[in-house]
Amino acid sequence: MTIPGSWYLVVAALLFGLGAFGVLTRRNVIVMFMSLELMLNAVNLTFVSYARMLNDVGGQVDVFFVLVVAAAEVVVGLGIIVAIFRQRATVTADDISSLKG
Amino acid sequence: MGAVGFVVLFPLLGFLVLLTFGRRLGDPVAGWLGTLAVFGSFVSAIVVWLARLGNEGHPYVLRLFDWFSAGGLHVNVSFRVDGLSVAMILFVTGVATLIHLYSIGYMKGDPLYHQFFVYLNLFVFSMVVLVTANTLPLAFLGWEGVGACSYWLISFWFERPTAASAGKKAFIVNRIGDTGFLLGTFLVFEHLGSVSFSRLTAGSLNLSPDTATAIVLLFFLAAAGKSAQLPLFTWLLDAMEGPTPVSALIHAATMVTAGVYLMARLSPILALAHTADLVIAIVGVATAFVAAMAATAQTDIKKIVAYSTVSQLGYMMLGIGTGAYTAAIFLMITHAFYKALIFLGSGSVIHSLNGEQNIRRMGALKKYMPITTVTMILAWLSIAGVPPFSGFFSKGAVLENAFGDSPLLWAAGVITALLTAYYMGRLVYVVFYGTPRFEEVTHGHDPHESPSVMTIPLIVLAAAAVIGGLLNLPVSGFGFLGSWLAPVFGTAQAAYPMSAGLKDGLMATDAVVALLGVFLSWRAWGGVSENPALERKIFFNGWYIDAFYDRAFARTGTAVAEVADTVVDRQIVDGAVTGVAGVARLVGGAGRKVQSGLVRSYLLIMVGGLIVMLGYVLTVAAR
Amino acid sequence: MMLAAISIPQLIVFVVAVAIVGVGGVGLLAAKHTVHSALFLVMTLFGVAVLFIEEGAEFLAAVQVIVYAGAIVVLFLFVIMLLGVDRVEVPAFVADRNRIVLAGVGVLAVLVELFYVASGAWSSGAVSQSGSLSAGQNVGVLARSVFTTYVYPFELTGALLVIAVVGAVVLSKRLIGRREVDR
Fold first, then answer.
1. Alpha carbon of B359 to those of B20, B380, B427, B434, B437: distances in Å?
2. In chain B, which residues have their Cβ closer than 8 Å to the Cβ of A24?
3. How far A100 CA lies from chain C's nearest CA (Å)?
4. Burial (CB count <10 Å: 0-12, 13-18, 19+), residue B48
5. Looking at residue B1, what is its pLDDT?
6. Which member of A24, A99, A101 has the closest CB to residue B603?
7. I want to staple A12 with a disulfide (CB 3.0 to 4.6 A). Which of A45, B28, B172, C140 is the partner?
8. ipTM, 2 dp
9. pLDDT on residue B126
C-alpha cells in the first residue's frame, strides 16, 4: 500500500501557501521570484498526485509544460530584474513603483 | 468586337501598374507607360471599329459577369459596342493618347509626376467604362469615376488653396447633378423594368410623355452638372486650377461631354419628351450665349477657353434638345479636337512663360513659338466655323437643325457663333501679336517653343481640327458619321425637311458670321491689348452668377454651419463629451489611489480576489 | 487507521522528503542572504523530486533535478552574483507588520478554502483524454502523449523558449544613448 494521494495534496497546499506568503512579504525581488518557483512546484506536485490518483498521464504532461513555461519565465524575469537593476541599482520591490497612478 | 474589353482593360492595367510601381518608375518612364496604356486602348478601339465596319446595324454586347441583382433588378457588367460607343471610344482614347503624350513634357519635373498619370489612366478607364457601359448603373460607375478623377486632378496642386477649393466645388456641384442621374435611373427601372441600354430602342418604349419628361429632366440635371450647363456651370471655370493637360482632356474634350453623350444615349426617351427637349434646347443655347459673352472679357487665358468650352457645350445641348443627336456628337468630336488643341496650345504658352496665365502679360509670342501660334490660329478658325475647317460643318449641322426647330434658337446660336469667332480672335491677337509684355515673368529670357513631345500632339490635333469636317460632310454619300450613327438613334433623330436652297443659305450665313467675327476681332484687338469698353465688368465676372451663388447658397450654408458650430456642436455635443470625460475623470481619480505601484499591494489584492472567488464557488456555485 | 496499511519504507521516504521540502521552503523565506535562499530552493526542489519518484513520475523527477535544480537555480545564482553576492537586505521582510499578518491570514484563508474545494465532489467524471498512466513505462507513456496528442502544444513551447531567449537578450542589451540611471 502506498501513501494516499491526499497526503501529497496537503504537502503541496502547504508548500503553495509558503510560496505565496514569501511572495507577499519578502522585499527582495529575487527571493520573491524563488518563492514563485515554490508555488509552481507545489502545483506540479498536485498535478503528479492527481495523475496517479486518476491514472491519467495528462497530469504529468501538464507538469512537463509547466516546467518549460517556468524556465521561460525565469529567463525573462531575471532579464527584467537585471535591466531594472541597471536602471535603478535596486532589487527591492517597493522601490520600483513608477507605475503609481 | 470583344476587343472592347481591351479598350477598358489597358487603362485599368496602366492605372494599377502606375499605382503600384509609379513612384519607382518616376519621370518620365511613368508618363510613357501611362501613354502606352492609353495608346493600347486606342488601338483596341480601332480594332473594334474595323470589326464593326459592314455590320453597323446590330449592337454587340460583351457581357462579363453579373454585378448585382435584387428582386426584379439584374445588373451585369457588360459593354456595349454600337455606333455611338465606338465613335466615343475612338475619339476619347485618341485625344487621351495625345494629351498623355503632351503631359510627359508638360508635367516634367513635377514632384507628383507619376501620380498625375495614375489619375489620368484611371480617368481614361472610367471614361471608357462610362461610354461603353450597357447598363445605367455601370455608366454611373464611370460617371462617378470621371468625377472623382476630375476632383483629384483639379486639386492636383493641392498646396494652392484655390486649387483645393476648386476641386471641392467641382465635386459638390457635380453631386447635385448626380442626384438627378440616380433618380432618373430609379424612374427608368420603375417604368421599364430594366436598367439596360439594350432595352432602350427608339419607338418601342411604352412611356407616357409625362414620365418621359420627368426622366429626361432628371438626367438633364445630371448632364447639366457634368457638362457645365446653366445653372451649374460655375465649377468648370474654377476647374482651370488644374494642370492644363487636365483642362484639355477632362474639362474640354471628354468628361464634360459625358452629359451630352448621356443625353444622346437616352435619345429614345428624349424623343418622347418634347417639353423636356425644349427645355434642353433653351438651356443649351442660353448657356452658349451667356458663356460666350463672359468669354469676351476674361483676361486669364484658361478662363477664356473655359468659358468657350461651356459655350460649345451649350451648342451640343442645343443639338440634343432639337433632336439633332448626330450633329451634337459630330460637334462633340470636332470640339474635342480643336478645344483640346486650344487648351494644349494655351498650356504651351503658359509653360514657356513660367506659369503665367494673364494674357495682359503675353503678346508677340508669334516670333518665339511658331508651331504653337500656327496651330492655335488653325484652332481659332476651326472653332469660329470658318469654312472649310471642321467647326464650320459641325456647328453648321447643329444650327441647321436648330433653325428647323425654331428660328429663334437659331438666331441665338448664330449670335453666339459671332461671339465665338470674336473672343477666340481676341485671344489669338492679344497673346501672339501686338507688343511683348512678358518681361516681368520671363526676366529677360525669351520665351521658347515647347519640346517636341508637346508640339507633336498640337500638330496632330491641328490636323484633326482642320480636316475633322470630313467625318460628316453635308453632302449626300459623305455623311459618314450620320450613317454610322443612324442605327443607334433611329427614329429618335429629328428630321427637318428643308429645301436645298434654305440649307445653302444657312451655311452661307454661318460662313459670313464666322468671317465677320474674325474681322471684328481683328478690328478691335489687332495691336491692342486692353480695351475697357469691350471688357465689361459684368462679363469679366461671369454675369455675377458665381457671386450670386456665393451670396444665396454658400453664405446661407455658412450661417447654418455657424449655428451648428456654436450651438449644436460646442454646447450640446461638446457638452455631452466633456460631461462623459468629467465622469471618467472622477472615477479615474478615485481609482488611481488603488494603483500604488507596489507589487505586493497588487498581489495582496489578488489574494483577496482569489478568496472571494473560491468562496463564491464554495457557497453559491456548489449548490 | 490507514497508517498500518502503508509500507514502512515508503512512509520513511515520504516523511524525510516532506521534511526536506519543509525545511527548504521555510529556509528560503527566512534566509537573509539571497544566496542562502537559492540554496534552500535547491533543497526544496530535491525534496519535491523525491516525492515525484514516490508517485511514479520518474521522468519528471529527473527533469526536475536537471532543469530546475541544475539550470534554473544556477541562473538565479548567476544573477545574484551579477548583482552582488554580499548584498544583505535589511529588513528582509516588508516593514509593515500589519501587512505581514494580512498576508498570512489571506494565504491561510485560501488554503482553507482550497481544502473545502478539494474535499468536495469536484470531479467532472469526464473520461481521460490523454491515456492511462499505468499502460507502460513512465517515460514511454509520457513521451507517447507529448509527441502525439500534445505535439502542437509541445512545438509551441519550443517557440516560447526561443521567444524567451530573444526577449532576455533584448532586455539585457545596453541600449546605446540611453541613460543608465534615470533618477
1. 40, 16, 8, 11, 9
2. 600, 603-604, 607
3. 16
4. buried
5. 66
6. A24
7. A45
8. 0.90
9. 93
The answer to whether A66 faces chain C, any CB pair under 8 Å, is no
Q: Do B614 and C114 touch (CB under 8 A)?
A: yes
The number of residues making up chain C comes to 183
Residue A101 host element (H or E): none
The pLDDT value given to residue C183:
42
Which pLDDT belongs to residue B241? 83
**Residue B69 three-state SS:** strand
Chain B partners within 8 Å of C102 (Cβ): 604
pLDDT at C182 over 50: no
**CA distance linking residue B438 with residue B586, whole number of Å:** 69
Give the mean model confidence (pLDDT) for residues C125-142: 74
**Segments of chain A scoring below 50 in pLDDT:** none
- Taking CA atoms, B155 is separated from B35, B103, B282, B347, B467, in Å, by 22, 16, 32, 17, 35
Within chain B, what is the greatest distance between any pair of CA atoms?
111
| Residue A23 domain flag | yes
Where are the domains positioned within chain C?
Answer: 8-101, 136-176
Residue B143: C-alpha distances to residues B4, B88, B287 (Å): 18, 14, 22
Give, in order, the Cα–Cα distances in Å from B88 to each of B138, B253, B311, B333. 16, 11, 21, 8
Residue B608 touches chain C, beta carbons under 8 Å? yes
Distance CA B492, CA B205 (A): 11
Q: Number of structural domains, chain A? A: 1
| Residue ranges for chain B with pLDDT beneath 50 | none
- The mean predicted confidence, pLDDT, of chain C is 82
Predicted confidence at residue C121, as pLDDT, reads 60
* Per-residue pLDDT at C7: 82
Of C99, C103, C120, the CB nearest to B622: C120
Q: Among C116, C119, C122, which would you mutate to test the B interface (most chain B Cβ atoms within 10 Å of its Cβ)?
A: C116
Tell me the per-residue pLDDT of B184-238, one tens digit each, with 9 for 90 and over: 999 888 888 888 888 777 667 778 888 889 999 999 998 888 888 887 888 888 8
Say yes or no for a CB contact (<8 Å) between A30 and C80: yes
Say whether residue B604 is in contact with chain C using an 8 A CB cutoff. Answer: yes
pLDDT of residue A48: 92
Instruction: Inspect the interface and report whether the beta carbons of B608 and C113 lie closer than 8 Å.
Output: no
H/E stretch holding C161: helix C151-172
SS3 labels along B71-133: CCEEEEEEEEECHHHHHHHHHHHHHHHHHHHHHHHHCCCCCCHHHHHHHHHHHHHHHHHHHHE
Residue A57 and residue C22: Cβ atoms within 8 Å? no
Q: What cell does C61 get?
A: 523527477
Helical axes B83-106 vs B4-52, angle rounded to 10°: 120
Q: What is the largest CA-CA distance in chain A?
A: 57
pLDDT interval class at C92 (50, 70, 90): low
**Between A and B, how many CB-CB pairs are < 8 A?**
32
Mutate to test the interface with C, among B603, B610, B612, B623 (most CBs of C within 10 A): B610
Query: DSSP of B239-287, one letter per residue?
Result: GGGS-HHHHHIIIIISGGGHHHHHHHHTHHHHTT-HHHHHHHHHHHHHH
Instruction: Please report, for the domain that includes residue A56, its CATH number.
Output: 1.10.287.3510
In chain A, residues with a C-beta closer than 8 Å to the C-beta of B592 are 101
Interface test with B, best of A29, A90, A100 (most B CBs within 10 A): A100
B600 touching chain C per CB within 8 A: yes
Taking phi over 0 as left and psi of -120 to 50 as alpha, with beta for the rest, A89 belongs to left
- Sketch the domain layout of chain B as residue ranges: 159-541, 542-590, 593-623
The predicted pLDDT at position C87 comes to 66
> How far apart are alpha carbons C129 and B435 in whole angstroms?
100
Can you give the residue range of the structural domain that contains A82?
Answer: 5-91
